[in-house]
Design brief:
heterodimer, A: mainly alpha, Alpha-Beta Plaits, 3 domains, two-stranded antiparallel ribbon, 2% strand, B: 449 residues, FAD/NAD(P)-binding domain, Enolase-like, domain 1, five-stranded parallel beta sheet, flavoprotein (chain B), FAD-bd_OxRdtase (chain B), FAD/NAD-bd_sf (chain B), FAD (chain B), FAD-dependent oxidoreductase (chain B)
């Protein structure tokens, strides 16, 4: 029987054993983290720019050296030896330690930034102080906790991205995809917004100042994009500001549906998105921990779609709150806006129910009807109950609860903090409203599918085990069915780990895409006709 | 209600049970001595290597069986009495049946080598074998060297498993090149090289003479027949093929050859008793297939077929075009149609072989030299689309057509390098042809008009 490591030892027999190089590399990486930790305890470093550089360089070097030693000396191929023996990747002692540390970090980051050294008036101290020189170099402003987080996040994606590319160096899909997430994180999420901040107050923006805007981050993932202060920022910043606002609206209503139709939601979730980027790189060692049971799938569907409803209500309420009533001042008033939302949701619902009805499970139909009724009823309240509030609660209450429950607790503390316990895509799977909307499009209106290769499947389970989204890929593959699931982010690992070449991610014709028949399991046609008879 | 008893919870028995349940309300009992629940035998290696836990290689969650009213009984069937329609589990518990399906699979071959039953000598087939391997070769301290006897698919998998724990492996292969009874020489050579890349001590053309015991009756060394060399080792893997697991049926009146003899309807000589999977032996082989096929998908197909017969649609077992796949360390292998090795080649068969100058990638295409009909393809390091080759074999395409449209059959992940141009230009050079490769067409692949 396999014995699972419950000890604290970093060493053991191969494949658990760490080589000498790997031990030194771990030490170097940890020393980089130690500098940040010392700064957190207010050790005052004399030359902050130098010490910050040393720290970030040590973290990067440690990670890269470790992976070079781990993969470069082996033949290219699947490198999962010992994954379930190592305590860090099998919910063992080090897995729990890592989970608890990450969770604590997120709690401090979101709720107690003062412990990181954030000072409202005056110079930052601690960790945030350590990052001041870098922040000033980029945007000209002192650092915030978000700048510290963004920097570490980018370093993690870059260093672990290199690790991932080494690990899958035989697989061009994985390498190109990883280069893509590394690029989008560094350029779009990190550097461009910081540089954009330099424009604030300049004549290019008519003297206005833009809100911090990661261009690839679209509503509802950045649920705050249409809040009042941001709209003011956009509108105050001349043509560029107005252009960005339009881009924000187009990205969810036009750009993403087109791309999802052509390529599936993977174009976003595993090629562009920052949350996906971290999950695919730093989180790769934890992908096998996602829950594959049917029960988990049921919970996932209810939770993630409830978040979509929540974010829709919240955003509607927030936009409602700053719109006026007077049509002569601005064409978009509280009432027209609410009617617009109601019409949009009802027509999406109606179109889907008319054309795609047969593809819905019974509980999905009940859920959709239920939620639509709730939203329309709440909108109706506005017209019956007079002014002030929409959706029973103050819009500010809704906004705050969403930002606390979903924005902080779910996406940060649970979503990333629990990587080593629940797997690396907990947030994407159970929480992300963006993933749910793209997934809805992927399931119903997309050319993307994972094709199953006839009868070659041997039911080994590698695909299901290494699916970070908890899809039981094998359940489809062993029946010869294509995999068309709304949650699939198209990371391609199921296809990579398959020892028999059974799975292929591809964009093909819609006809025959969801073939629930058991096609071509390698037998003569008359048996297959009988097997497929319901 | 009819009582269906299935002996064996492998892919064949479980496929039969699932499909009988789909088609009927009959009572279904599966008896297994090996495990409580169905698991994927081919995935046992990944449990030893730490890619998966044992739970992961069970394709169905544990509630599945009760929900589908498939009763599971744990125990070994020791006796079958066709007259009374009764069988004995573990020598005592009697179970009655109306229809019996024998799906007991295989057991590792042992060819009477001296010392083959010592502690430390084992095959690799069952869950028990996997557990035993954790005792015999848990790590490189306990097992300082392992010797594997038999150069087939299980042998190379066992070598890969042991190497994942850094255990030194000597691999004794009777043939003068790996698996060259099945693979054409170019491919077999490619795998020889790849085995050495993984630091496996490959000994070709080498036979085992005997396994030597230490004072405690444990494996101490092996002696090689050709040279008399004594190789110290702590574990010997006996992987020279498998044989049907049917000894418990001797004297029952059910006709046995090497396996349980069946006709095309998978019926044995005794009414209401069927045999499927690895343990079934066709009276006459089907096409070029062997009378006993120990392959995952044939087990599944026999299960599906016998379920139809038992539920009233008597159906002949027709496995269709041959295909298979395997993975040799890091190299994936697929085959569609028939490509024989030099040893088994038909008179009319001719081969085209292409190998990449640096990468471990190659293909062999077999065709009929009289009428150019495409017969089959082997690929190493390139994935191919099953549906396309099945179609081409059905349509009896000629080899030129296949070369021209080869890109349509490619199943590698997106962005992978394609080698069709190189392959076809070698084909043109070898056979003085001037074929131009077509562009990939989704319309052709998915047959849309």
């Amino acid at each position: 029987m396999s014995t699972y490591d419950r000890s604290m030892a970093l060493t053991g027999q191969p494949p658990k054993e760490l080589s000498r190089n790997q031990k030194i590399a771990t030490l170097i990486g940890l020393s980089g983290l130690a500098i940040i930790l010392l700064a957190a305890f207010n050790v005052n470093f004399p030359n902050k720019a130098l010490w910050l550089s040393i720290s970030l360089a040590a973290i990067t070097t440690g990670t890269i050296w470790f992976s070079w030693d781990m993969y470069s000396k082996k033949e290219p191929g699947i490198k999962n030896d010992g994954v379930w023996f190592k305590s860090i990747s099998s919910k063992g002692f080090w897995g729990w330690i890592a989970g608890i540390s990450l969770t604590s970090f997120y709690i401090i980051l979101y709720f107690y930034p003062e412990y990181l050294g954030l000072v409202q008036k005056g110079d930052n101290t601690g960790v945030i102080g350590l990052f001041d020189p870098l922040s000033r170099a980029l945007s000209g402003n002192p650092a915030s906790q978000w700048f510290v987080y963004g920097t570490l996040y980018t370093v993690a994606i870059l260093a672990f991205g290199i690790k991932f590319m080494w690990k899958y160096r035989h697989n061009r899909y994985e390498r190109i995809r990883t280069m893509s997430v590394m690029f989008f994180q560094t350029a779009f999420a990190f550097i461009i917004p910081e540089l954009m901040a330099r424009l604030n107050g300049s004549s290019v923006l008519n003297g206005g100042s833009l809100p911090y805007y990661d261009l690839k981050n679209m509503w509802p993932l950045n649920y705050y994009n249409f809040e009042g202060y941001r709209i003011k920022g956009f509108l105050s910043s001349g043509d560029i500001g107005f252009g960005l606002l339009i881009f924000g609206i187009l990205s969810i209503f036009v750009i993403s549906p087109i791309l999802t139709y052509k390529y599936g939601k993977r174009w976003y979730c595993s090629w562009v998105c920052g949350c996906g980027g971290l999950a695919e790189t730093a989180g790769d060692s934890f992908r096998q921990l996602s829950d594959k049971t049917v029960k988990a799938w049921k919970i996932e569907r209810w939770v993630v779609h409830s978040v979509v409803v929540f974010v829709t209500l919240m955003t509607t309420a927030v936009i409602y709150s700053y719109l006026g009533n007077d049509t002569s001042k601005y064409w978009l008033t509280k009432s027209t806006f609410l009617i617009g939302v109601g019409v949009l949701l009802t027509s999406v619902f109606a179109l889907v129910m008319i054309f795609k009805r047969e593809q819905f499970q019974k509980d999905a139909k009940y859920g959709a009807v239920g939620y639509l009724v709730i939203i329309l009823a709440l909108i109706g309240f506005h017209f019956f109950s007079g002014d002030g509030q929409v959706f029973l609660f103050k819009s500010e209450t809704l906004r705050k609860s969403y930002s606390f429950l979903i924005g902080s607790i779910f996406s940060g503390v649970i979503g990333t903090g629990f990587y080593p316990i629940f797997g690396n895509r907990v947030w994407c799977r159970f929480g992300c409203p963006m993933a749910a909307i793209l997934g809805f499009q992927q399931r119903l209106f997309s050319k993307f599918r994972i094709t199953t290769n006839g009868g070659q499947c041997i039911s080994c389970g590698n695909c299901s085990t290494y699916c970070e989204m908890g899809i039981d890929v094998r359940a489809y593959a062993q029946k010869g069915e294509n995999i068309v699931r709304s949650s699939c982010v198209g990371c391609g690992i199921c296809s990579a780990v398959c020892p028999r070449g059974v799975l292929k991610l591809e964009n093909g014709p819609l006809q025959g895409r969801i073939d629930s028949n058991q096609v071509l399991l390698g037998n003569d046609v008359d048996l297959m006709t009988l097997v497929n008879k319901k | 209600m009819e009582n269906i008893v299935i002996i064996g919870n492998g892919i064949a028995g479980v496929s039969a049970a699932r499909h009988i349940r789909k088609l009927s309300d009959k009572r279904i009992i599966i008896i297994s001595g090996e495990t409580d629940y169905f698991f994927s035998r081919t995935a046992l290696m990944y449990v030893y290597m730490g890619h998966m836990k044992f739970d992961h290689i069970q394709p169905y969650e544990n509630w599945f069986w009760e929900k589908n009213r498939i009763e599971l009984v744990r125990g070994y069937v020791t006796q079958v009495d066709p007259k009374e329609k009764q069988l004995l589990v573990d020598g005592s518990r009697a179970i009655n049946y109306d229809k019996l399906i024998i799906a007991t699979g295989s057991k590792p071959n042992k060819f009477g080598w001296p010392g083959q039953d010592l502690h430390g000598a084992q095959g690799l087939y069952s869950k028990q074998d996997l557990d035993l391997l954790e005792v015999n070769a848990p790590n490189k301290e306990v097992c300082k060297r392992a010797v594997i006897v038999g150069g087939g698919l299980i042998g190379i998998e066992l070598a890969e498993m042991l190497r994942s724990r850094d255990i030194p492996v000597t691999f004794l292969v009777r043939e003068d090149s790996f698996w060259n009874g099945v693979l054409p020489s170019g491919e077999s050579q490619l795998i020889n090289e790849h085995i050495l890349e993984h630091h496996i001590d490959l000994r070709l053309g080498t036979n085992l003479k005997e396994i030597v015991a230490d004072e405690n009756g444990k494996v101490k060394s092996v002696i090689i027949a050709e040279t008399g060399e004594e190789l110290p080792c702590n574990m010997v893997g006996l992987t020279a093929g498998v044989t049907p697991n049917v000894d418990f049926l001797k004297g029952s009146g059910i006709e046995l050859g090497r396996g349980v003899k069946v006709n095309r309807f998978l019926e044995t000589n005794v009414e209401d008793i069927y045999a499927i999977g690895d343990c079934a032996e066709q009276h006459e082989a089907i096409g070029n297939r062997r009378p006993i096929e120990a392959v995952w998908y044939t087990g599944r197909m026999m299960g599906e077929t016998v379920a139809q017969t038992i539920c009233g649609n008597q159906l002949e077992y027709k496995p269709g075009h041959w295909f298979n796949s395997a993975k040799f360390l890091d190299i994936e292998y697929q085959t569609y149609g028939w490509v024989f090795s030099e040893r088994g080649m038909k008179d009319y068969e001719e081969h085209f072989h292409w190998r990449h100058p640096e990468e471990k990638v190659c293909i062999t295409i077999a065709f009929n030299k009289e009428n150019n009909q495409f017969l089959g393809i082997n690929t190493f390091g390139i994935r191919m689309r099953h549906e396309i080759f099945d179609r081409w074999l059905n349509q009896e395409k000629d080899v030129d057509y296949v070369m021209e449209h080869l890109i349509d059959a490619n199943f590698d992940p997106e962005f992978y390098k394609n080698y069709e141009t190189e392959i076809v230009s070698k084909y043109n050079a070898d056979f003085q042809k001037s074929i131009k490769t077509k562009k990939k067409s989704l319309k052709r692949i998915f047959q849309i008009n």
